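Sorry, can you check?
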Amino acid sequence: MSELSDQEVDPGPLLPHLFRISRALAGRLDFLSAIRSVAQEISRFLPYDHLDLCLLRHDGTLSAAYETGIETAWGRKETAGVQNSPIRELLWGHVDHILTEDATADPRFAFPGVFCAPIHDHNLRARVHAPLVVAGDIIGALSISSFAPGRYGPRDVAAARYVADLISPYLFALREAERSRQAAIVETEARAREEGLRLGARDLTQALEQERQRIGMDLHDQTLADLSRLMRDLSRPGALDAETVLARLDDCVADLRRIIDTAVPSILDMFGFAHAVRVHLERAAGDAQVEVQDDSQGAPDALDPVARIALFRIVQEAINNAGRHARAGRIDVRIAAQPRLRITVADDGCGLPEDVRRSRKKGGLSHMRTRAQLIGARLSVRSGRTGTSVSVSLPAGGPP
């Protein structure tokens, strides 16, 4: 089969089709709608069973193929290396087109590591490939395939190249617009995270100051007051016997231990996350039935200390809310690691008032949200008449 250059093919008969393709592309804002808008017109002069566009990304990899006719694994693979593409010689610019009578038996489509399964799975035999070129740079390829071997010849190559040259600027503009859109999204998300972290750090600083004040008041109003009363009583001869003094000192020590455990969860370091949660749950639940189910195989203990303590504080606050305010008869805590680390505190209490659930003002829920935000976790609160569920989860890769 002799080669025939584009200049030797009269484009006159193709012009009406090319004009209609150009009009069909106008206003298309994504690659898939673009290829589908021109596919029917292409089939009038270049019949096919499968047609696709593959585009080169800025990092040098191939994006997913945008297909019409039939769906193949090429369209389901989000990115691929050019070195594994069956048309890599075209994408590298080593050839200006590819024409084959039968791709299933053509050695150009068979080399180590090639991703050519769709050729054999769908019996794509006759094939024409033309490069998509903008300002001398190859940005992708137009591929047309038929089930029938020997279906295409040099004139079909020329027609494919006319189509490729026509649609390349449109596709280039779409690629750049998509790149700009993604960059804008990334920048917006980064700014939102930065602002969120700034506000979160401010709120957490205020929360920590409030926590210090609370600890100071607990020490002053409770432990210090108890010790002062004990000293006054001891100053009176014969006022207290040794057993009474020891009992009151034991109460003071218990109060101090409670305050210390609240301020610095040493039990977390000594016995692990699940045990610390279980101990706090039993202390805070009152008469409610409690259960801790740990299916994570100790996953929280593998986190860095900042993330682990933040998670513990979130769970601690959720338990406190259930025990003190929800009048719960049962509180369950579940720790799971699949598909990502997730801790859920669920109760059967009266639920959160609507204004509290939606409020962004300072308070328990606000502090939980802030702690979650600072370690890149997601906090979810669901509440109704049948109880409340608080869930905190980390992304698959752990905290940032």
User: Anything to note?
Assistant: The CA atoms of residues 293 and 334 lie 5 Å apart. The chain is about 50% helix and 15% strand.
